[in-house]
Amino acid sequence: MVQGEPIIILLVEDDPAHAEIVRRNLRDFRVANRIVHVEDGQAALDYLFHQGAYAGAQSGARPNLILLDLRLPKVDGLEVLRRIKADDGLKRIPTVVLTTSDAESDMVNAYTNGAGSYLVKPVNFEKFTGLMEAFEFYWLAWNRFPD
Amino acid sequence: MGTERANRPVAPLKLAARLLTVLAAAIGILVLAGWAFNIAAFKSVLPGWVATKPNAAFAIVLMGYAMLSSSFPRSALSPRLSTLRCRLARFCGLLAGLAGLLTLAEYIFGWNPGIDQWLFREAAGAAGTSHPARMAPEAAVCLVLLAAALEIAADKRQTGRTLLARAVLGWLVTTFALVTLLSAFIMASATFGWWGLTLMSVPAAAALALLGTAVVLAAWQEMDAVWLLDVRTTAAFACGLALLVFIGLTSSRSVNRVVATGHTRVSAEQILAVTTRISSEVARARASSRGYSIAGDEKFVKSYLAAAARCNEELAALRQLTAGNPRRQRQFLRIESLTAAALEWWQKSNDARRAGPVAAAGELAITIRGQALVDDVIEALGQMEDDERRSLSEFQRASDHSTRVTQATIVIGSAAGLLVFLTAMLGLNRVESRRRQVEVSLRSEEERFRAIFEQAAVGMAEVGLGGRWLLVNGKLCDIVGYTGEELLAHTFQDVTHPDDLSTEFDYKRRVVAGEIDDYSMEKRYIRKDGSVVWINLTVRLVRDGAGAPAYFVSVVEDISLRKRAEEALRSSEVRFRRLLELAPLPMCHVDREGVIDFRNRRFMQLLGYTEEDVPTLAEWWLRAYPDAQYRQWVIETWGEVVKRSAGQGRDIDPIEYRVTCNSGEERIMEVSGVTLDEEDLLATFIDHTQRKRAEEGLARSQNLLAEVERIGNVGGWEIDLAKQELVWTEEVYRIHEVETSYQPTVNRGVDFYTPASRPIIARAVERAIEHGEPFDVELEIVTAKGNLRWVHAIGRADPNRGRVFGFLQDITERKRRDEELKLRDDEVTRFTYAVSHDLKSPLVTIRTFLGYLEVDARNQDGERTAKDMAYIRGAADKMAQLLDELLNLSRVGRMVNPFVDEPLADIVQEALTLVAGQIAQRGVTVQVTGEPVLLHGDHPRLVEAFQNLLDNAVKFMGDQPAPRVEIGVDSSDGGYEIYVRDNGIGIDPRHRHKLFGLFEKLDPRTEGTGIGLALVRRIVEEHGGKIRVESAGPGLGTTFRFTLAKTSRQPT
């Protein structure tokens, strides 16, 4: 990762409101970042693998970080995670699961399939903000990304 | 020989003896008759011969009777009479003998008690006998001998010695008599026997000879066994001896005669000498007397006296010499008187001379008288001399004659004797050689006998009448444990068990008495070592020639083995009786007459009937079967099976009867048994009451089990390892959907399983069979009809009974329900998950944007606030909608409306009405099939289903210019499939599986909560149907197909 360049975050989220929340939070953060938002699992895969609607090398730069919701239409978040981690080119991209589900099984599955972190969307506004801030600090400020 | 005597016809010898006896007695009677009636011929055969004395004749008659009587055996018919007869016979014999003895005594001791004349008187004119009326000494001797022989014969136990004695006595008698007869006929002058005594008369001699012969014959008869020499030899010897005796007698007689002659001669010569001397003395006396008378010289007197004295001496001598002979005495007396006269004359003369003159004496002496006297004397003397000389020459002649006869007799006799002896010798030789032969064969016989006797496998012995062992063989010694020597010193009583003695004595007594010939008994001996041995004793009495008991012959058989076997048999019999008695099965025995003569303990215990209760079959019928009609049936059926059994020789076919026990309790018993003879039978009772009850219980529980099996869909199976057979219960057949005629095997059973399940079950069964490992698996099978079923197979090994067994349960239902439950569970989980997620999502949105709103409101950013509020509202709306649909969905699960049949068209019509807006707005063409199909279900729900499907179809039309929805019915194997087809955007096959998921929205941009299809599916499934979706691909439309449990054709 070249210093100074914005961190590309792929946001895979089907709920527009939630996407908006994330977007709003990340927009204001000091670390430069660019969000790519896809609304379902299939789109996420298409983007990552340069296929389907995203066929063509230009469209879709490789993200540095993937924020992944589990409940996605078409292709499930877990499946996406699996696919990402199965691919040599993509598997080093840290993937953080951001979901409303606090089910143990989902968490275990996420980690089993190679998730880097598991975050549960809090219902509280302050908490959500706090979470986003922390996330930003940790993942965008402190965390180092491989090339 | 001895034992058969009684039955044999009378032997010829005996018969002859009897005949002779009769003849002798007849002679005696004749003689007596002769005396009685004075017939001379009967008394003595020839006149002038000695007559038989009456006492002799009487004695002969007595003896004859005695001998005859005793020759007849005692009759067993009238023992008392026979005893009397025997006694009488003996008495007669003794009497005759006594007569003879007395006579002999008279002769010997010179008695003359005068008994001879008691009986009879001497007849006049009979030939003179020395002792009138007395029997001849030979006759007496003969009678004594005969009596002796008779006495000896009276002894029942005749030995060789006694028989020989009798024979000898008889023979002596015969010889005496015969000799007398012979000498009578030969000599023809026999009137005097020995010692000048009376000779036996001819009749007497004949009779005695006959009697003697009879005695010999009788003895001979009995001597058969004893006397070895044959008849000829013995006869020869007897004859030889007789000849010897005859010769002896005759020679002695002639010697006697010679001696008598000698005596006579001596006496004659002496007489002659004396007479000569007398005559010389007489002459001298005459001369002396003359001389004196002439001379008168005294010396003449002296010589005369001397002569006279001498004369007298001589006369005395002559007297002596002539004494005893009457004739001679007469002559002597004459001589004496003459001589005395002469001497007297001469004395007178002498006296005269002395006194006077010569002339006087001389006168006397010289006169003619004197001369005459002398002449007379001399003449007398001369006569005597002549007589003597004459008798001497007579005697001489007789003596010469008899000597000649004797010589002849001796020569002939010797010759005959020699011949006879030669014959005898030859006979002896023959006898000897025969004896040798016999001896040899006897020895070999004896050897054989001895071998048999000694080696016999049974004990044999001869036992004396007193019980003493006379002869024992080896086996007997073995049996008794004593040696032969020891046994011979003992009696059988010594070795017999005391308890058996009395029986044996009784038997022996009966045998001896002749009541039985032999006896057989089982008894005990006490061996030397004190042990007891059982034997079978057979004893026979051996009688001697006269029929008297001699000794016993015993055969002893060691039956200790048999006894032991008998004992074992008896104890075994007792044991079996006990077994029968104590057998755990009630049994009774009914004999021909219907009497129940045996019932064992169990019979009495179980049925309660004792002997008094049911002594006969009739009683049994009454007591055991109180109901008359039932009883009738029982009697009939029983009679039938008994008859069948007897006829075909097999067991009585068992029949179950309800038997009433003594206590009144009814028991179900299987009555069977066997017929032993015609009507004899042994009946057995098997109490089936328990069994029946158990059977009933078992049947009940079996039924229950079958029911349970059926209800629980559980069946049992069992593999018999030995027979390699697989057995299924009914339920297992049902599970596999095969007929009960199907023959399952382990391999076939395993083949029912699906390819995935087969290896598992095969391995499990194998492990169970080989290692006894139990298994418990849930696998899938394909039934015979091709249906897929889930089964729960449990297996266990039972090595003790060589089987592997287990259960098979059809868990398809359960699996389905489990799956359903799982699905529902999953669904619930998903539901909860989805709910929590999908409800949480808007909540997050609302809360977060409220926060933003707060900030934005403070910042008075109108645009931002509006946007925020929009998000909030949107989320709230969503939540509301969600909740609504959730409620709706949950309601589907609790269907309360009854199922009814409704035409498809009507339902679809109603649904169309509800989505009419969307349809119109999008401009969709809806085509509904005209097929008259009836749907059976919950009306509002079905409507809802169609509504959702239509809604969905409309929603996903996409860019389709001519949107069309088709609702129709396809018939598919036996049922109807309803389809809703659209030509909308279709479904990406990759995502098809998520279609019916709750809250799944393939396209998040579309409206809707994502519940719709889930709802449809729920509705379909609640109607017992299945729903699926078909889509060729994106942009190629979608077809939803579903079935309902009951879809039928509308009747026209």
Describe what you observe in this structure.
- Helices cover 39% and strands 17% of the residues of chain A.
- Chain A is built from five helices and five strands.
- Chain A has a five-stranded parallel sheet with strand order 2-1-3-4-5, with helices on both faces.
- In chain A, helix 4 links the parallel strand 4 and strand 5.
- In chain A, helix 2 runs parallel beside helix 3.
- Chain B has 1052 residues and is an alpha+beta fold.
- Chain B contains 31 helices and 23 strands.
- The radius of gyration of chain B is 81 Å and the shape is rod-shaped.
- Chain B starts with 11 loop residues before the first helix and ends with a strand.
- The N terminus of chain B is likely disordered.
In short:
The complex is a heterodimer of chains A (147) and B (1052). Chain A has 147 residues and is an alpha/beta fold.
Q: How do the strands and helices of this protein lay out in sequence?
A:
The complex is a heterodimer of chains A (147) and B (1052).
Chain A: E1 7-12, H1 16-27, E2 33-38, H2 41-48, E3 65-68, H3 77-86, E4 95-99, H4 104-112, E5 117-120, H5 125-142
Chain B: H1 12-37, H2 40-43, H3 54-71, H4 79-109, H5 116-119, H6 137-154, H7 160-187, H8 202-223, H9 231-295, H10 298-322, H11 326-355, H12 358-366, H13 368-455, E1 459-464, E2 469-472, H14 474-480, H15 484-488, H16 492-495, H17 498-513, E3 518-526, E4 532-543, E5 549-558, H18 560-582, E6 587-590, E7 596-599, H19 601-607, H20 617-624, H21 628-648, E8 652-660, E9 666-675, E10 681-687, H22 689-712, E11 714-720, E12 725-728, H23 730-736, H24 746-751, H25 758-771, E13 775-782, E14 788-798, E15 803-810, H26 812-859, H27 862-893, E16 900-903, H28 904-914, H29 916-922, E17 925-928, E18 933-937, H30 939-955, E19 964-972, E20 975-982, H31 1012-1022, E21 1027-1030, E22 1038-1043, E23 1047-1049
Parallel strand pairs in B: 17-19
Antiparallel strand pairs in B: 1-2, 1-5, 3-4, 4-5, 6-7, 6-10, 8-9, 9-10, 11-12, 11-15, 13-14, 14-15, 16-18, 18-23, 19-20, 20-22, 21-22
Helix pairs in contact in B: 1-3, 1-8, 3-4, 3-6, 3-8, 4-6, 6-7, 6-8, 7-8, 7-9, 9-10, 9-11, 9-12, 9-13, 10-11, 11-12, 11-13, 26-27, 27-31, 28-30, 30-31
